[in-house]
Amino acid sequence: MDQYRVFGNPIKQSRSPLIHQSFAHQTQQKINYQSEYVELDQFEATIEDFVKSGGKGANITVPFKEQALTICDQLTERARLAGAVNTLSFVDGKILGDNTDGQGLVQDLLNNNVPLKNCRILLLGAGGAAKGVILPLLAQLPESIVIANRTLTKAESLIKQFNNEKLSALAFTALKNEKFDLVINATSASLSGTIPSIAKELVVNTHCYDMVYGNELTPFLLWAKDNGATKVMDGLGMLVGQAAESFRIWRNVHPEVAPILQRLR
Hints:
By secondary structure, this protein is an alpha/beta fold. It contains ten helices and twelve strands.
């Protein structure tokens, strides 16, 4: 049976085994997918051992996504630009690296009937989460993407890296009366129960998405809803969507996301 893993630290909370086993059942694929805790200084050795044992592929989660990039023999463009890898494939002695996070986000937005073509997007945050979704969002041909961050220089460095005329950078404090069709929270604010310091006018009559998810609406989504957002969505669909893209890369079949998402909800 083909072996797959998700490697991380911590890892107990991972829903990836349930998701991938559900995909396998749905598509009649015979795989064994498990989560594995990795000591912080043992990532490369763990991957090496897994490849030697005949492993076919692996998902990589916090805190190893950047380190995973450095061990790959080949990278997709989206992984290279994201500066992080969440999907490894082991083929003919080579390690192939990809990043499916952005595809997971885009697919979830489209599944929620959020039009992306010609839309104006505000992306909050300029860290790894934001970096990983810029290329797939640009592929949907939006009118513009404003990357806003507490520290302007960090947002500006992302603009330089992607070198696309549709991208611009602003500090949170410089966001005034702009109108956006979609606001995406790629900061970790919701994890600490806080909200990015932006004006409430920015979310009125706007679709709002938080990459974080939980049993309840995140603080950002609650705030957006209270301030007139048209629709609010959390990141659970993105999680299932990125997993579906990894599964497609490994098994060359497209699993259905909706039934798994419903089960997780």
